[in-house]
Amino acid sequence: MFRPKLPTMPQPTSTVTPPAVVEPTTITPGTPTPPPVHAAPASSRPVVQLTPDTALALVGGGTAVVLVVGAVLVSMLLAVAITAASMAICALVIRSLVNAQHRR
């Protein structure tokens, strides 16, 4: 019951053909011809050049994105912390009310 059952290999139902014989070919040495050199096609897109103004804009945009994402994450963490603290206070109040009712 607890021993694994190994699958059995099924027997082939048809005749097995032997693999075809591959005869080696002779290699004749020759002078290698260099591959043709193709000129790079001209791209239809314009080349992007970074000027100091565009680099400054990219740095400013990246900084703004990092600050916004950081502010959102910090506010979410603060919301979770405030919720946990208020739930802890509610639990203490309910426990004290239950204990006070048992004493009466």
Structure in words:
With 104 residues, this protein is mostly helical. It has one helix and no strands.
Set out the fold topology.
Layout: H1 52-103
Question: Briefly, what is this?
Answer:
The chain has 104 residues and is an all-alpha fold. The chain has one helix spanning 52-103.
Q: How helical, in percent, are the residues? A: 40-55%
In terms of quaternary structure, the protein is single chain
Separate helix tally? 1
Secondary-structure-derived class: mainly alpha
Low-confidence parts: none
User: What is the CA-based Rg, rounded?
Assistant: 39 Å
Total strands: the figure is: 0
Task: List SSEs in N-to-C order.
Answer: H
Overall average pLDDT: 84
- Measured distance between first and last alpha carbons: 61 Å
Give structural attributes.
104 residues, mainly alpha, flat
